Write the structure tokens for this entry.
Amino acid sequence: ISLMTKSKLLITGGCSFSSPRGIKEKKTWVEYFQEKYDYKFYYHSGLGAAGNDLIAQRLLWSLDDAKQKNYKDITMVVMWSEIERNDIFTNDWSLNMKTDNGDIIFTDNIWSNLLDDEKSTHKITSGFIRPGGKPYTEEFYRNEKQRNWILDYYKFYNEELSLMNTLKNILLIQNICKSDDIKCIMFIMKNIFKNIDKYPQLKYLYDLVDWDLFLLYEGKYGLYEYTTINDLEYWSDGFHSKFSVHKSFIDHFDKDIKKLC
């Protein structure tokens, strides 16, 4: 094994709360985590509007790529997104929009200093469209074709199923980390489990999750509530936390992070 593969490597994932390459106050915790805990190599797979299906697939692609390159000392850190974000898979490229969130995306556009041009630009033949939450009927939301397609899909939206799928994604990532001896840390962008008691049938999945891998503020909250409770600063949209808050959030969990990685 070459010396390079002995270096420790970080894989991160999530939605816009975890997307890399932000400018100034719009940077996120992923770069801070990488620098603070001294990871020389990284894959940052976070992507605006991503739901938990897409987040899980991008983490798995990054993991496979790292393993193919013979890396062994891997830490995976994910901040799960809102359960309402049901990513929809398609190979119909007439639905593709060249906008921030309306494009078809899959395992491409993952940032890493182990990829040829720092961004995975491999060609995809199909992928996910990200509604980014429950869709709007108004014209500002996407274009007419994509909007109607998403609205049709969401006629079948079911909160219990969305929660079930999120728990399955969590179990999938936790268990591949355990089987492959990968260090694993999980956050949430906000309290996505608040309605779990409404669905007693899902208790079996909830119980199977290893909650010791989750770092939750006050035992149940994510970055969004951390920002509100501590009266910290958001972007002008009142939803995304400024980079200073991301740093404060990671620092808050420093002892727990060091125990887990």
